[in-house]
Amino acid sequence: MPEPCEENTVEFHNVARSGQVPEGVVRRLFIGEVEIAVSRSEGVVYATSNYCSHLDCLLSSGKATEDGLLCSCHGSVFDYRTGEPLCPPATRPITVFPVKEEDGRVWVGMDDELAKAAMRRRAAGSRRLSARRPSEVGGEVGREVGREVGREVGREVGREVGREVDAE
User: Fold this and answer.
1) CB distance 68 to 80 below 8 Å
2) 121 vs 136, residue with greater confidence
3) With the C-alpha atoms ordered 129, 68, 84, 109, is the resulting torsion angle positive or negative?
4) Which pLDDT does position 153 carry in this prediction?
5) DSSP string, 105-146
6) What angle do CA 85, 91, 96 make, to 5 degrees?
7) How far is CA 63 from CA 25, 72, 122, 124, in A?
8) Which partner for 77 in 42, 64, 86, 133 could form a disulfide, CB atoms 3.0-4.6 Å apart?
């Protein structure tokens, strides 16, 4: 159950055990429908939206560095505390969430405004470069493998028929 924060309407949600967020690693976690990237740098835990403001790549595929959160797609680095881009090509900040670590647990603060900001993405018509869900990838891979196997079987059958015709 979320804990209310006294300062404002932010509620803190227990998202992980402290040991699940080791130094230098970025984890993809969810608070309801909101996807977040949780990382640890120099012993401090941070939480941001999980999508790079450049091309919507998953920040959880990147690394927590001493400089900031590194996007693995094009090398943008974001400040942990402000979300501001420190290195191009990103020019817009990412959403940053309040975090507290207590009793071996990581708690991330969320309110409606933060949730909306975190779910705001690039234009709907933009090319999707972020990683897809495994089920999406599996379906595409399966279809492509099926097409390729079908083409290969068709070529092989054609060769066999050709050999039989030549033999007659």
Assistant:
1) yes
2) 121
3) positive
4) 53
5) EEEEEE-HHHHHHHH--S-TTSPP-SPPPHHHHHHHHHHHHH
6) 45
7) 6, 7, 22, 27
8) 86
pTM listed for this prediction? 0.68
Tokens 């060769």 appear where?
Answer: 159
29-40 burial by CB neighbour count: b if 16+ within 10 A, else e? bebeebbbbbbb
pLDDT digits (tens, 9 = 90+) for 77-103: 999 999 999 999 999 999 999 999 999
Are 107 and 3 within 8 A, CB to CB? yes
End-to-end CA distance of the chain: 78
* Burial profile 57-82: b = 16 or more Cβ within 10 angstroms, e = fewer: bbbbbbbbeeebbbbbbeebbbbbee
